[in-house]
Amino acid sequence: MKPQRVEPDEIEALVARAQEGSSEAFEKLVEAHQHEVFGLALRLVVDRELAADVSQEAFIRAWRALPRFRGDAAFSTWLHRITVNAAWTLKKRKTRHAALSLDESPETADPRRGSDPERAGETVELRRKLSAALGNLNHAQRSVVVLKDIYGWTHNEVAESLGITVTAAKVRLHRAHLNLREQLHEPEEER
């Protein structure tokens, strides 16, 4: 199902109606944001099934917390923060119960559509390595990398979404980049 495009003023009206208890209004909010919430969850937990659980948990938490939503940030920013927190909680719970296989890394796009099979193979391999390296980051670092490098958020938006200072967001991003660089570095003899 293709996401419905909802204008910002319509979002505000839907939020207000949902805060008054309208489940229909909240359902429209879910429909408008479900794909971006799932995409964020998938990048954070690197597991399709867990991402679906995270998305569902995020919307449940949002419904319960909606009366306390003040509108200081955009609804989508508030929902992203809830998603990040839900991902953290469910990932931690899953890690306690079972080990995550790095082979389960999802491919988000099909690079084989290109005309160069060798390049397509290299792209698949690079995606696999990046996905595995991202999956090896701790949750705090992975969250910053996903929001800043993949979603293109500013440091201020990342900090606000995660409830940390801008300095902390920059430090986490720097450490995550160092960690990724170390994981992806190939010794000279392997090249």
Explain the overall architecture.
The protein has 8 helices and no strands. It has 191 residues and is mostly helical. It folds into 2 domains: 1-106, RNA polymerase sigma factor, region 2, helix turn helix motif (Rna Polymerase Sigma Factor, Chain: A, Orthogonal Bundle), CATH 1.10.1740.10; 116-191, Arc Repressor Mutant, subunit A (Orthogonal Bundle), CATH 1.10.10.10. Helix 1 (8-19) packs across helix 2. Residues 97-114 have low confidence and may be disordered.
Mean pLDDT level: 81
Nearest-angstrom radius of gyration?
A: 18 Å
In CATH terms, what is the fold-level topology of the largest domain?
Answer: Rna Polymerase Sigma Factor, Chain: A
Globally, the shape reads globular
- Biggest sheet: strands, sense, closure? none
Span between termini = 43 Å
As a percent range, the share of strand residues is under 5%
Low-pLDDT runs of 5+ residues are 97-114
Query: What portion of residues is helical?
Result: over 70%
CATH class of the largest domain: Mainly Alpha
Q: Number of DSSP strands?
A: 0
Order of helices and strands: HHHHHHHH
Number of self-contained structural domains: 2
Architecture (CATH level 2) name of the largest domain: Orthogonal Bundle
CATH superfamily of the largest domain: RNA polymerase sigma factor, region 2, helix turn helix motif
- Count, helices: 8
- Class per helix and strand makeup: mainly alpha
